[in-house]
Each structure stands twice: as C-alpha cells, then as structure tokens.
Amino acid sequence: MSSADASSSFAFKVLTVNTHKGFTSFNRKFMLHELRDAVRTVGADVVFLQEVQGTHERHTARLANWPAVPHYEFLADSIWPQFAYGRNAVYPHGHHGNAVLSKFPILRHENLDVSISGPERRGLLHCVLQLPGRSANVHAVCVHLGLQESHRSRQLALLCELVEREVPADAPLVVAGDFNDWRRSAHRVLEHRAGLREVFLHSGGTSARTFPARFPMLQLDRIYVRNAAVHAPMVLPRRPWSHLSDHAPLAAEISL
Hints:
Blueprint lengths: L2 H5 L3 E8 L13 H11 L3 E11 H6 L8 H6 L5 E10 L2 E9 L3 E8 L9 E7 L8 E7 L4 H18 L6 E6 L7 H9 L2 E2 H6 L16 E6 L3 E5 L15 E6 L1
Parallel strand pairs: 1-2, 7-8
Antiparallel strand pairs: 1-12, 2-4, 3-4, 5-6, 6-7, 8-10, 9-10, 11-12
Helix pairs in contact: 5-6
C-alpha cells in the first residue's frame, strides 16, 4: 500500500441478491423491471448477482416485457458501466449464472466452474476492480454454492484455493452471494482458511436471515471481507424486496 493509500480512506457500497432469473417465488410473476428499480435505490457501487438470466428463448417469445438484452446488462443499464457474467447453467432454451455490476473498471474476470455432479451447475465469478486513487486493486468473488452439504464443502475448499492462488495476501477482498449454507459451516472454514469475516456476523453476532424472502428463516446469503478497515452492514427495507425474488438482498459499506 502506498503512503497516499495509507493516509486516505475509501468507502464503497456492495449489494448481493439472488435474482431468481427475474421471477418471484415459485415463478409466479416476472419482476425484473421492479427489481431493477429496487437495486438502483440502494446506491451500491458493486452488485453481486446470482441466478441471473443470460438468454431464454421461450420467455422471450412468451413475455412482452422480457428485455432484449441479457438480464445483467438490463440491470446494469446506465448506472453500472462495467459488468461481467459467468455462465453456469446451460440448457436448450438459454443459460444463467453469476454476474458482477461495477461503477469501477473491471480489469479482468474469470468464471470458475465448481459444479460437483448431477444437474446443479455452480460457479465462482472472480473480478479484479480498479478503485479511483488506490494502488491496490479490489478482488470481488460472486458465489453460488450447491444445495447438498457435501458439494458445498468441496466448493468452499475450491473458493479458498482460488483466494490463495489469485488474491494477494494484502489485497482488499469481498466475497458475496448465495452460499446455501443453512448449517452456517462456511464461517469457520472461510475465516480459518482464507481470513474472511462475514459482515453481519462480525457486526451483530449472527449472519442475516434471507430465505425465503417473505418470511426469512435461513441465513443463506453472505458478504465476507478481508483487508477492510470497516465493514458495516446496511439495513434494507422489507418491502419491496420481499416480493421481488425468493431471496432477500444484503448490502454493506466497505471502507479501506
């Protein structure tokens, strides 16, 4: 870190949300336009998206308000000029995956396939962001882990290996997304192996309940950080988020 970096702090906001491919719970209603409005109101600098639709030929023909561009590009619009997409699941009519939207330049990105077996396709989207006036780049990893505990255990190990291999020890790091970790075992693994601390757990003693969005009971979604001076969770209103996806979003302010 340069002397200029050490003498001045820099804060940015992050948001993570599982978009459920633009539909409400049980695919009752297409809500991507309303979701875009809600995402904008948070004022996040970096947005982590899971289950974001790339293309879907059947929905394009069936829904009059289906966007002409991929969902991550539709959500980014003119607010986030930079975006990266990692395609995880491919099927006859389209594909979906993880995405990162950023107000800062994305210097490079790579999607790591961490699918174990069976129909579940999962990935880790690793982006390197260039912050204004900072010599050290910020690393951001958008995560979507499997439903089976044995799969998640192996995927967490792959995440730790990615951090060890690709992220300098002194670089700021944000790891966020849908961990499907209802047993809350990821906290210990990620802190012990990668030095990551969960924002809500560190601030309030427990991670946030995010699923199902209307009546959250399970702590599935997380924001982990490393090499951050301050990481403060942001409280988002229950409405309209509870009616936009099956997962509630999480947001935090990160200071370097």
